[in-house]
Structures are given as structure tokens and as C-alpha cells.
Amino acid sequence: MIHIEVQAQNQLDFSERMFVYNYRIYDRFKIPVTSVAILADDSPTWRPGPFRYGMWGATMGLDYLTTKLLDYKEKWAYLERENNPFAIVLMAHLKALETRKDHSLRKQWKTELTRLLYEKRYSKAAIINLYRFIDWVLTLPEALEEIFVEELKAYEKEKNMPYITNAERIGRKKGRQETVIALVRKAGKKGMSEEMIAQFVDLDVNLVRQILNNEPVEIPLHLLSDS
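The structure assignment produced for this chain is given below.
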């Protein structure tokens, strides 16, 4: 069995949790278990190690494999050459961390990574699915998103490959986002729980909580219905 944990923030008891999950899987299936931690946080120094406990000479613990995604910042040229679709996912993740406070730079990288999907000659389905992830992690303010869409539309026309979307469809989804946010807030005022609202509008409960707390929120386009 392979046990994979994707951890996006520093957690003091993370190594203990890896140990607990590993032994529970072994206890359930009685076969060897390899545990792998994918560290997707933004701290260069957080690198959790093995878990150990014991007394009186008796010890127990777990050594597990780790991959620190931030380390790939130094391997950017390799990621650009790599045809494995996960390279695009990793590049988008790194740029999402890097551009959290710089929307103009984020738009630039969203454009470059989207164009890279075509340059790598992925299939139509792969381009659409990978773009959904790029759109999710590299959200833009409405004004910059509109500029991005126009540039993308021109690029797709030039390549004669209108795979991802067109400006009208994205525009409709942007309007639909406002409708969903209004619906969530109305449901909250009527006393519905966050979990019930999340199920009703088909959104993650954390997004629903942000909306109810009047926090700024961008709903990824692919989570909004086309109907």
C-alpha cells in the first residue's frame, strides 16, 4: 500500500499523524505500507522528520519519504522541459505562492502557463483539465481576469485551437459567481448550517464560510455551472 499525505501548512504533530495513519492502514490490511509526505507549504525551513517514541529500551517509530515542492523552484528549467502533466501542476502551485501579493505578475504567469499547455501538445482533454487547476490556484481580480480572457481568446484563435473556453462563457460564469455568493449569504441569514449550504450550492465548506464571514473570495470558474 502507498499512503500519501499532501500537507500545505506547518503542523507540529505532522510526523505523529503520519505514524498513526501508517499503522492504521497496516492494521487494516496486514501488508507493507510506504508513507509519502508531499510538503506544499510556503516555509523553506519546515522539514518534518521521523516519528519516534519509547521507554525502557522499547522503541517505536516511522521513517517516511518526503518531497518538498518549494525545492523545485531551483529546477524550473527542468519543469519547463518535462512533459509529465504534474510538472504543470507543480509550476502553477509554485507561482501561486510566489504571486499572492502581486496580481500583475500572477496574470503574467497564468498566461505563460496556459500557453505552455498548447506548446507541450497535450490532448484537448488534458489541456482543459490542467487549465482548470491553473484557474483554481491563479485566481485574478475581475479586471485582470477580463484582460487575461481577451488575450487567451486571441491566442486560441491564432492557434486555431479554441479548447479552453471563450470570453462570453467566462463572462457568464463571472456573473454567476455573484449570484452564488448572494445565494449563500441569503441561506446563512435564514439559519442554514455551513454544511447544508455547501451541499446545496456544491461548494467547499471553507468557501461557504469565507462568504458568510464577508471575506474576499474568488470561486474557481470550473466550480460554477454552465447551465
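Interim note for the steering committee: The first helix runs from residue 14 to 29. The chain has a mean pLDDT of 88.
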